[in-house]
User: Fold this.
Amino acid sequence: MRFIVAIDGTAGSGKGTIGRAVSRHYNFKYLDTGLLYRAVAFNLRTITTEFSSISEKMILKSIKGIDKNLLELKELRNNEISEIASLLATNFCVREKLLDYQRNFANQKGGTVLDGRDIGTIVCPDADVKVYIDAEEGVRAKRRTIQFKKQNIEVTYQEVLRNLKKRDRQDRNRAIAPMLPSSDALMLDSTNMSIEESLGIIILRINEELKKITLNS
Assistant:
């Protein structure tokens, strides 16, 4: 059986935490697709400083260098890497090459959970369950600031809020795969919801879809 859960949404909305929780609950494989762009940015930084004019060869080399250890580096979360990753997200070649990586992951046997900004619309438009999570800017910035501090990354709330607003504008207005909810996505506003409450709603939706598969098999 192949079962795909696509979770999209804004930074700090809780989609990563929820995505990991869903994967643990069902023993599904999990991929934070945003980390892929950060990993490419991290690898490219050792090759060039001109990120607006990178070659396909550089991109392929950077993607080939992605592994589990790299995706776990806390350096991928810093603002410099975040800004480069946001720029790379507008690069057609980067998106095309990472699209193959993400779809190969999603189409494994068993269940998979992918979170990002264009999973339900571009990467996995045929996902069994699609979710789009958002929250008020101030709440998201506060959550992200706490997250950074837990990782011993020194950053102020105002810096996080400013970068978050900038990232939102770039993601929503980019010409290639802009961040927007799929028409058939479950919409969640997590502003006043705990992770447990959001997770509970998503689990109900997933159980409904799993039940349909069981009945039709």
